[in-house]
Specification:
Elements (H helix, E strand, L loop, with lengths): L13 H8 L9 E5 L16 E2 L2 E2 H9 L5 E5 L14 E2 L9 H15 L3 E6 L9 H8 L6 E7 L2 E12 L3 H9 L5 H7 L3 E5 L13 H10 L4
Parallel strand pairs: 1-4, 1-6, 4-5, 7-9
Antiparallel strand pairs: 2-3, 6-8, 7-8
Helix pairs in contact: 3-5
Length: 228
């Protein structure tokens, strides 16, 4: 793995990001951000996105599903970006030290979107290859006044949020940067603070947010390929 991101005491660019965002109010589709910054300990380490599903890397399936829904795609991952060169995507790393989780990927994605003049980002997980083809449309429809929305499914009478699948306005960059600096790590809590809307998806014929954490999950995913 490459060198870790800088420590929290080092500047991560909120001032320059803010200046880039001034006057930015485009109506372009969201930037897609694939979150691949986890350490994949239950898979034995390494990059889950490079594991093969139906003869192709998991990331290839995720990219194929996301590309028609967004303006562009970037990959959030830490370490040496060269290992993802075959996918032809820009790689943005966390700007906070110590593997702080998905919210750091959201922050990095917001910063990239600001540089591109895009108002919003949509995040998806690199280990979840079956997410809905209408994910982005539904998230936009469900967005709260704050502009935040999360995907969810219902099981056993309960609503289950999938907070790595969300719509995030770039104007919340500074708020998120400050929250991370205060130790905020749970995506759902930060989203709820902004009154996140909910886009509820069907689990028929199976949960579209089934994610691959173990070798056994990968075997299950192989059996689901024909239904996806």
């Amino acid at each position: 793995m490459g060198k870790p991101p800088p420590s929290p005491s080092e500047p991560c660019g909120p001032e320059t990001a803010q200046s880039r965002r001034q006057g930015q109010r485009s109506s372009s589709p969201p930037l897609g951000v694939i979150l691949a910054g986890g350490q994949a300990t239950r898979m034995g380490g390494g990059d889950k996105g490079l594991r093969l599903l139906d003869g192709r890397p998991l990331l290839a399936h995720v990219i194929e599903r996301l590309a028609p829904q967004v303006s562009d795609i970037v990959l959030n991952a830490n370490g040496a970006p060269e290992r993802f060169a075959d996918f032809g995507l820009p790689v943005v790393s966390d700007t906070l030290y110590g593997w702080p989780g998905p919210l750091a990927g959201v922050l990095a994605g917001m910063d990239r979107a600001a540089a591109q003049g895009t108002d919003t980002i949509v995040t998806v997980a690199a280990d979840t290859p079956f997410f809905p083809h209408d994910l982005v449309t539904r998230l936009i429809e469900a967005a709260a006044p704050s502009g935040v929305a999360l995907a969810a499914t219902r099981a056993e009478g309960r609503l289950w949020h999938h907070p790595t699948f969300g719509l995030w306005p770039v104007r919340l960059f500074e708020d998120l940067h400050l929250a991370l600096g205060r130790g905020q790590r749970k995506t759902i809590l930060w989203a709820e603070r902004h009154g996140a809307g909910t886009a509820e998806f069907s689990t028929t014929p199976f949960d579209p947010f089934f994610n691959i954490n173990t070798p056994e999950d990968l075997q299950i995913a192989e059996t689901l390929m024909g239904q996806a």
